[in-house]
Amino acid sequence: MKKLIKYICIIICFTLMCGCGTKEETINNDELRDIYEDLKDYEKQGNGLVEVDDEGAAATCYTANEFIDSNGYIVASKFAIFTDENDIVTGINSQEIVYSNDPILLEEVEDGVIRNYEMINEQYGGYEFNIDKKDNKLTSNVTIDYTKTDLESMATDNETVKIYLNDNYQFTLDSIKKFYVSMGAQCK
């Protein structure tokens, strides 16, 4: 469980740089493995299972991880990075998906994601998000507008973020891609 919460925090850190169903259905580990086979194909970036508006994006980054044998969950994320003409990052659209055969785990993840994004938006601004949980899938869609985000305060509060900002407290396309790659994502 702590491993999943840590991973969700990493996803939220990615984004710093970068309706519930009425019927609960369960899936078994074999079905999770089938889903992961589709998700792990980087070139196809999740075979359409992870969708994010990336029209006009300067780059996209994608990651998928499975923890089927230990806890029965899969996490996949896609990030579309938008820049200005000087390759300064102006925004990110992302989608993060968690599949699990444990409805309690999904509820805990949902609560953690909501708390973290609300806190980040309250402290620094520029974040919009929505979460949808249906059956065995939790989907988080996040839009970050860095023109409305207090990156200087974020850098003061978070040394990791500060490393990737330029002298004007801005992310460059290269620096944000390096950050995502350092966390296990692949970017193109």
**Shape label:** globular
Strand arrangement within the widest β-sheet reads 4-5-3-2-1-6
SS content category: alpha+beta
User: Strand-residue fraction?
Assistant: 25-35%
CATH homologous group name: YehR-like
The value of Rg in angstroms is 16 Å
CATH topology-level fold name: YehR-like fold
SS element count, helices: 6
Strand segment count: 6
Cα distance spanning the termini? 31 Å
CATH architecture: 2-Layer Sandwich
The biggest beta sheet reads: 6 strands, antiparallel
State the order of secondary-structure elements, H for helix, E for strand: HHEEEHEEHHHE
Number of domains: 1
Mean pLDDT: 81
Helix content: 25-40%
Plain-language structure description:
The structure is a single chain. This protein is about 40% helix and about 25% strand. The chain has six helices and six strands; from the N terminus they run ααβββαββαααβ. The protein has a single domain, classed as YehR-like (YehR-like fold), CATH 3.30.1830. Strands 4-5-3-2-1-6 form a six-stranded antiparallel β-sheet, with helices on both faces. Mean pLDDT is about 80; it is low at about 15-25. The radius of gyration is 16 Å and the shape is globular. A hairpin with a 2-residue loop joins β4 (about 125-135) and β5 (about 135-145). The chain is α+β, with helices and mostly antiparallel strands and about 190 residues long.
